[in-house]
# Entry
Amino acid sequence: MILLYDLSEENLELCSLEPGEEIYYCLPLDIDLRGDYQSDSYVVMTDRRLMVLKNNELAVNLSLEECDSIHCEPQIACGLLFVQKDGKDVLLGRYTAKHLTRYSYLARGMMILKSGRKDRVVSHEYEKSCPKCGWAMPGTRVCPHCSGSRRGYFKDYVSMVKPYMGQMAAIIVLMFVSALIGLLSPMVQRYLVDDLLIAEGRTYGDAVPCLLAMLALSLGVIFVNTGKNYLCARLGSYISQGLRRQVFEKVQKLSLSFIMDRKPGELMNRIVRDTGRIKDFCSEVFCNMFTIVISFIFVLAYMLTMNWKLAILAFVFVPVSVGLSIGWRKKIRRRYRRQGVKDDKLHSRLQDVISGMAVVKSYGQETKEAENFDLAAEEFAQIERGNETFFAVFFPILTFLLGLGSYLVTFFGGRATLLGDMTPGELMQFVTYSGMLYGYVGWISNMPRHLMNLITSMERISDVMNQELTIYDGDNAVDLDIQGEVEFRHASFGYKSYQPVLDNISLKVKKGEMIGLVGASGAGKSTMINLIMHLYEIDDGELLIDGVDIRNISLEKFHSQIGVVLQENFLFAGTIYNNIRFAKQDATYEEIIRAAKMANAHDFICQTPDGYNTYVGEHGYNLSGGERQRIAIARAILSNPRLLILDEATASLDTESEYLIQKALERLTKGRTTFAIAHRLSTLKDADRLVVIDDHHIAEMGSHDELMAQKGIYYGLVQAQLQMQKGG
Amino acid sequence: MSGTGVGHGPEGPGGHGPGGPGGRGQGGPKGPGGRGPGAGEFEDFQLSQMEKETEEMLRVRYLNDENAVFERTGTGFLSLRVGEEFYPRVVVVRMFPFSDKDEFISIRTAEERSREIGIVEKMSQVSGETARMLEEQLTLRYFTPVIEKIIKIKDEYGFAYWNVVTDHGACNFTIRMGGNSVIHLSDVRILIMDIDENRFEIPDINRLTPAERKKLDLFL
# Structure
């Protein structure tokens, strides 16, 4: 992301840089305080000064020492830049949402400069639209539009098809054969009419071979086309299967932030629907492409040589019919798109109400909801009615107009035949060919749309495939056997970089230590854990595991040494056995039973109807929250992790299961570096140290006794909980 | 991100507890294991502090010309004096920005975990000068240009490129096709969100020319 915009000569002059002074950041102030768009206003930060240039004037000129701090405050779809100076907030300028992120970097950059360091803040985020051509960038570093990779999609398609060259060759041969047969049968018909039916002195017996040939051709067409379609469909499904696998593997490797940025439905669509579209292209378009192009050329040439005047007459109608069918398609698509939108609305309305039925019923809102639904249904029905009527009225008219060419050909051709310029057989062949011609033209005029669909899908797929991994094993990634030492060094992180969740965190955790993380919800406890699990990359600072930067530790090896127990534990559809051994696929029965026993899970598992083979997950055996929890603990125990993470592991449990789980956790945490989050502070009584996170920082740190004696935030929280228990 | 931190009105120590209700008149609470001498006194203080905060949070205080004095800071912001309390910078927020933008204006402290100081019920109920000052702050906070003219909309490869004239000047922006880029606030009023999360509004689509409507059709 650009943090240093180019300044014009005049603007640069306005800054009148001192010798040795260097511009560090330069960002546009693209709206003024009233909101009017500005094209020539900038904030310039050098290693000494902060300046605002407004319409060829140096409006603000402050030395960095004068400013206590700089703030870039996000507003609603815009942001404000102000400094704090002499205890007052001084407003300097305003910018649109396009620059929100940039300004957060500016603020961070200034604090670094003020502290005397000369480092530049570098943003690894991608631009949303290309600074050169203005096109939206599909989450890639280089603009596919500028770099010209868009033109490469057909090449991509060919390269996808390449491994299946044998099948391709067979398909192409079949396409030729199919075209040949299609062109041959009108010829045989002509022969039948001219040389057998009208000709004098022919008997029934003479016609038989010809009729047999026609039968053979009809059967041949069926066989060839069936074979061709079968091969194409098979090729399509091979290709889409291969793609699906690639896309899925890539999605799994991408960082959580990429996945969280998108709706789950969107990614599912890319894996399922877009790859499906590519298959459709194979089986519907590609497989007919050659047949039609060859036939088209042949028919065209043949008609011209047979009777060029008549042929031209037939062609005159080609542009008309193309225009008509394109116009029609546009119209109809627009109408059906609107219908689709209403349909979606109706569906989501219905889904909303059905999934919220308990709320609707308990508030007695059935009548109102029924009315709302009626309204949406009526809207949809109205549009649907309109569209159906439109279709019913105009489609026959369109068909008639498209057929007009054939009528003309028949009329003039019939006249020529009567005058003796053409034989009846020739007329028949000619009329058949012109019918075919119109069909092909219709099909070819559809091509751009098919190609467009293909390109859009390919693009969405390559958007995922080209996405650069933010978290990956670097070249110097090491397989580290973790001892369990964790250290944050001036670490900062935010899910959106302009909203820091953790700011300048420093914390050193010894091997085997248990850390309790405490703080209000949203303070950043879970975020800290996400960072330790390396699901996200920290923005600034360092995170060290056993003294090694977490970025240099190979991911798979690292993750295999972490155990996680969450509040809501996800059990995959499968047996209890499979769920426990999820982290260690080669575990023996005995290991699994031992782990289950340690997790206090063995006894209840034995009481389920199918023991360890009991099917859980969706539509499976119903486990209570506590039981799920204990299975998750067993899973963690089995993997024998060096680093253990407990995120609200005992919340929302009844007292008895909480006791059982506490006991299980005690066994689990022994000797392992543990990070635990709990709202119920009594759960953290065994922690060696408690870390209180407040306002993005570590506010307090120490043992329970130490923090109680401090009478700070932790003390307040403990008191509040005691009060709630008593008064509740 | 603001954290101006200079004398922000009255705020007690340890204002961090999740002020849970209850616990009224339960007598002196005891710390686990009764730690530390003199804890009882402090606990009582804590408790009353928490109750006070809860009550303060639940209170709805209306601000008007009698009880509140707004003043421009001279550096672009607004300060407020309510009785004894003085706030060097307040944030002005609409509670119903779409349905009633001139009613129920929340006046809040400028800290990140901002707290409500009071509510201006109707802009028409305060003096013209106060209303103007509040309006200035609202203008700073909300940026939603109104589209007055649609020159061109081109949709290509999953994005739509708009070229429009707004009440704040001419502008180009890009939205994602499909998804939630176009929000219907009512049958005729739409809100458009571009890829940078900028907002644009069309208050009444019926006021557009037929040609502009046609360009917009794809999104309705």
Notes: The domain at 147-465 of chain A is CATH 1.20.1560.10 (ABC transporter transmembrane region fold). The first strand of chain A starts at residue 23 and ends at 28. The two ends of chain A are 52 Å apart (CA to CA). Chain A touches chain B through 68 residues (CB under 8 Å).
